[in-house]
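Schema walk-through. Below, the input block comes first and the output block second. Nothing else is stored per chain. Lengths vary across the set, and this one has 217 residues.
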Amino acid sequence: MGGLVDARLLAYAGVVALLVMAPGPDMALVARNALRGGARLVPPTVAGVATGILGWSLASALGVATLLERSALLFSVLRLLGAAYLCVLGVLALRSAWRGRPHREAAPLPARVPRSRRAAFLQGLTGNLLNPKAGVIFLTLVPQFLRPGDPPARVAIMIAIFEALLVTWLLVYGHGLARVGQTRLAHKARRWLEAASGAVLCALGLEVVYQTWRSGA
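--- output ---
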């Protein structure tokens, strides 16, 4: 276990923490259910989102593991494509933070607030599964912190970290909104979080490009 926990894994956890706190479809859904349905709908909504993310992460991890095993070149190409995508996400986050308006996501919010916990769970699950961006983020983020020869257990730990941070943040966020609602302070905090996540994503993408260029020079 000690060999699996290193600086790369800690850096990954830091990036994931910023990512899960950045505004997006999952946060919007949790916020809507918390504000209109109360705190009782927060845990099942978060559970649905977490289940959807688990499905995306397992599918993405399988693809990453296959590339690691079969082709170092293709894995490097995936890292570069992922770096470019992370930079795009970072620029969009910085732009929306600068303008003060949240970036519009492709997945629309459901029209109705669920009345039961079961309906809230299904809403969180389907909302996440219908948003391919969740899988793309995991597919592009994980390879940046893996190296050829890393054991499969490392990927499992990365998935567990992603899930734990996501669930913790959404529960805190949802219950907080259910108590205090939308305030000016909350709006400012959201802008700062989006700006911070955008800067980290851009820096991570550029670092991967630099390291790839340096290794090939």
